[in-house]
Amino acid sequence: MSERVLTVEDLDVTYHVRSGALPALRGVSFELHRGEILGIVGESGCGKSTLSASLLRLLPANGEISGGRILLGDRDVTTMSHRELRAMRGREIAMIFQDPLTSLNPTFRVGTQLVAAQQAHRGGEGDRDRTSEFRRRAIEMLTTVGLPDAQERIDYFPHQFSGGMRQRIMIAMALLLKPDLLIADEATSALDVTLQAQILELFRELRQERDTSMVFISHDIGVISEICDRLVVMYAGRAVEQGTVREVLSDPKHPYTQALLASVPSKDRRGERLATIPGRVPSLSELPPGCDFAERCPQVQSVCREPVLEGVHTADRMVRCLIHDPTSDYDASQVTLVGQAAVQAKQEATGEEPERTIGEVLVRARDLQVHFPDRHTLASRILRKKLGAVRAVDGIDLEIHRGEIVGLVGESGSGKTTLGRAILGLEPATGGEISYDGQDLTAMGPRELLRLRRRMQMIFQDAHASLSPRRRVGQLLTEPYVIHDIP
Ligand code: ATP
Ligand code: MG
Predict the structure, then answer these.
(1) 385 band by pLDDT with thresholds 50, 70 and 90
(2) How far apart are CA 17 and CA 473, in angstroms?
(3) How many angstroms separate the alpha carbon of residue 190 from the centre of ligand 1?
(4) In sequence order, what are the beta bridge partners of 95?
(5) Residue nearest to atom 3 of ligand 1 (CA)
(6) Closest atom of ligand 1 to CA, residue 283
(7) In ligand 1, which atom is closest to the CA atom of 281?
(8) Atom 11, ligand 1: which residue's CA is nearest?
(9) Which residues contact ligand 1 via a Cβ below 6 A?
(10) 3-class SS of residue 21
(11) Could you identify the atom of ligand 1 that is nearest to the CA of residue 234?
(12) According to the per-residue pLDDT averaged within each range, which of 93-107, 214-228, 402-416 is highest?
């Protein structure tokens, strides 16, 4: 067996909140070997990001590793001093965060950050003279991850990039460091399929070249199946199933894994109601005794609600479910519907989707243009008398009818978000027209726009950038009522 790079033993993580202590991870164990890529899947809120942050001891201030060990080689990360931690984070482990805006510093140009990361990584003050080399490498790497005009754009600030581009900047940073261990939390989820494939190839090359081990967190089963060797399925803070990717995906044993795989959307099932798992992940403050999935499980029996539930291990496989525990009182003959069939049956019982009707035109864009002035450095501003511009949206004609859902697809950086913002009047149009319900948006003053915004809403790509961290969820949700004076 190859060298063990990371061993997580019985890891518990607790978040301390006003109402008490939330057990976000409970008894999570797994191993990662040299050159191996371990996938982690599970619904939102199951603890994937908590797990990746705890591996680097980067939990938020109210998070605590409350039990277990994390061994990096034979050193225990949970007891390392801050100094050891800093050295380790710089040199051995790199992390790509789920939320690139929180990890790129908004006040520094991207190039500065990419150079600084390489300097810190190699750890020498002497490396200061290698700035131009580091900068050249950074430009090369940005080009490799598919960023157009890297030479010029390296001096932009993070907010001047699209969401997918920011994600690629993070990826470039991680790849530049050539780490022994890479933790990627939803690293490619904002990218379109072609770019995603390209980036996955880069990860594979890194592994080939350096024997890098990776923890790869994704909600995308397709990506997981393509790149990972082994898989951990998480549910409500526990690992519920583990095994090789091939085994787990082709023969899922835990009813949760089965349901999760059944709900992957597919082109072939277009128009059908999407399969979902009924109910939701239990609240961490009211976890049920016994199996956490019991409430939603189509195969549940009364024994499942009794407190003891150990993982069942066979060879390289672990399943935390009594169905697979020969010593339990679970009686398979009592179950009529199994796995996917039951989930689908529940769905069918909830009824057909009502027929949709498409009405008259609500939004109309004509030759819409949004250009951003290209003013990255003072020098280039002086040298090139005429300012260039990034033509984010350039001559779009679009009609959206009442009750219609219009899909907008395109590669990362192709202008999807900017177009969405322009339609709502959040980004001033450089040219062209937009009308909403017959009213010309481009001619409106701020007051009229505000009134109109009551009727149109945007869900932003980057939640962190659009929710103020200083406000509680309750305040954020009630604010629109106040602004728009809705009783
Ligand atoms: P997603 O797929 O949405 O990224 P995730 O699996 O990464 O989800 P986590 O971010 O690890 O989930 O969250 C796990 C649980 O811990 C959730 O219930 C979440 O509300 C809670 N949690 C996360 N951060 C904190 C915090 N700072 N304080 C309190 N609870 C937290
Ligand atoms: Mg997460």
Answers:
(1) very low
(2) 14
(3) 19
(4) 183
(5) 44
(6) 18
(7) 18
(8) 47
(9) 15, 17, 22, 24, 42, 44-50, 60, 62-63, 98, 219, 284
(10) strand
(11) 6
(12) 214-228
Ligand in closest contact with the CA of 53:
1
Start-to-end C-alpha separation, the chain: 66
Of all residues in the chain, what percent carry a pLDDT higher than 70? 87
Please give the distance, rounded to the nearest whole angstrom, from the Cα atom of residue 70 to the centre of ligand 1.
19
Contact 325, 317 (CB under 8 A): no
Instruction: Determine the distance separating the centroid of ligand 1 and the alpha carbon of 290, expressed in angstroms.
Output: 22
Ligand (nearest to CA of 47): 1
C-alpha 397: how far from its chain's center? 32
Which of 39, 30, 47, 34 has its CA nearest to residue 1? Answer: 34
Choice between 382 and 283, residue whose per-residue pLDDT is larger? 283
Distance CA 102, CA 159 (A): 11
The answer to whether 174 and 141 have CB atoms below 8 angstroms apart is: no
Our mutation pick for probing the ligand 1 site, out of 49, 97, 218, 467, counting the most ligand atoms within 8 A of Cβ, is 49
Measured from the Cα of 53, ligand 1's closest atom is 11
CB 201 within 8 A of CB 209: no
pLDDT number for residue 196 = 87
* Ligand found nearest the CA of 22: 1
Q: Return d(Cα 208, Cα 280) in angstroms, integer.
A: 40
Determine the average pLDDT of the residues in 457-478. Answer: 76
Q: What separation in angstroms does the CA of 408 have from each of 419, 426, 436?
A: 9, 18, 18
Q: Backbone phi, then psi, for 395, in 5-degree steps?
A: 80, 55
pLDDT score, position 339: 47
pTM of the model: 0.80
DSSP 2: P
Residue 13 has what pLDDT?
97
Tell me what pLDDT residue 335 has. Answer: 62
Q: How far apart are CA 482 and CA 487, in angstroms?
A: 8
Hey, whose CA ends up nearest to atom 31 of ligand 1? 15
Per residue in 41-57, pLDDT (tens digit) is 998 899 999 999 999 99
Residue nearest to atom 9 of ligand 1 (CA): 47
Whether residue 195 contacts residue 20, with contact meaning beta carbons closer than 8 Å, is answered with no
Residue 181 has a pLDDT of 94
Q: What residue owns the CA closest to ligand 1's atom 14?
A: 47
**Average pLDDT, rounded, for the chain:** 84
pLDDT of residue 25: 97
- Out of 44, 56, 232, 464, mutate this one to test ligand 1's pocket (max ligand atoms within 8 Å of CB): namely 44
Pure H helices in 92-232: 100-103, 110-122, 131-144, 150-153, 163-176, 193-210, 221-227
C-alpha 20 to ligand 2 mean position (Å): 22
Backbone angles phi, psi at 315, to 5 degrees: 50, -120
